Amino acid sequence: MKQVVRMIAAAAAVATMGLHAGAHAADEYPGSKPVSAVVPFAAGGPTDKVSRDLVQIMSKHLGTTIVIENLGGAGGTIGAKKVSQASPNGHTVLIHHIGMSTAPALYRNLGFDPLKDFEFVGEIADVPMVLVGNKSLPPNNFKDLLPYIKANASKLSLANAGIGSASHLCGLLFMSAIQTELTTVPYKGTAPALTDILGGQVNLMCDQTTNIAGQLKAGSLKPYAAMQSRRVEAFKDIPTAAEQGLPGMEVKIWHAMYAPKGTPKAVIDKLSAALQKSVTDPTFRAKMAELGAEAVPAQRATPDSLKTFLASEINKWTPVIKKAGVYAD
Ligand code: ASP
């Protein structure tokens, strides 16, 4: 009996030591070691732009350098899976968008559970989408584009950043709304897709304003419609799809930060506090606004708010995707 009591006491002591070591590590976090922020899309694209603007400011608030690691492919699911399996020590985080909520319905073998395999840091920014086309496409506005698409569907292509990306979701809703299938061309991000739109290798894309703000201002793309119910503040001259006869197009792309499951709460709290300071930082807010995006208020840059929102987005998009009958695999 004594032996058992001693063993229990020893096990309890080891567990306490472990707890102390964990608490100690969290106390010292982040230390001087950098944090790697995985962006699951190509460099130079919309998620990359939001992320780079964020980490520039957040590094200062966190007290260590946050380095972006681009890991594109499969609509963001490759990078997300990698982070779900990373060491939960606060030195690897994921910056992802709405794709976190659409992937479970699109991928039967996703390899991670967005709600169970991550800790939640908070939301970052909302980004609107605009349907754009190559300059040489004949239609000059959305009203003319719709019959043109119907008449030329077999010849027209629609770029996206892979199944589960924002451009894929928006394209899917658009094709379903106009009841016309186009050939879709997947890329590792809309940065490389945009190069091909500009070069005329693909014709159309539904993209986030964070990726195309420069081209919209320079007039090097044809903007057909804002894919939301109101005009985009920074691009007021682009009419919405609804204004031009196609109601119901509402795709708002939200971005958020996650850490691997098991990252200590004290570490998550530090990350989230730094995120809250960053999203309310006037420099970050101004940078987002310039790109047509909107940094979230501090109360959305919190773990609880993100977890609840992600669950609601999964519930919102799963039936839409199931109804569309689209699968990635
Ligand atoms: N977020 C993707 C990117 O950064 C684009 C997309 O999801 O459509 O390229």
TrEMBL record:
Pfam families: TctC (PF03401). The keyword DNA damage does not apply. Keywords: Signal. Residues 1-25 form the signal peptide. Transmembrane segments: none annotated. The keyword Hydrolase does not apply. PANTHER family: BLR1237 PROTEIN (PTHR42928:SF5), TRICARBOXYLATE-BINDING PROTEIN (PTHR42928). Belongs to the UPF0065 (bug) family. This is Tripartite tricarboxylate transporter substrate binding protein BugD. It comes from Cupriavidus respiraculi.
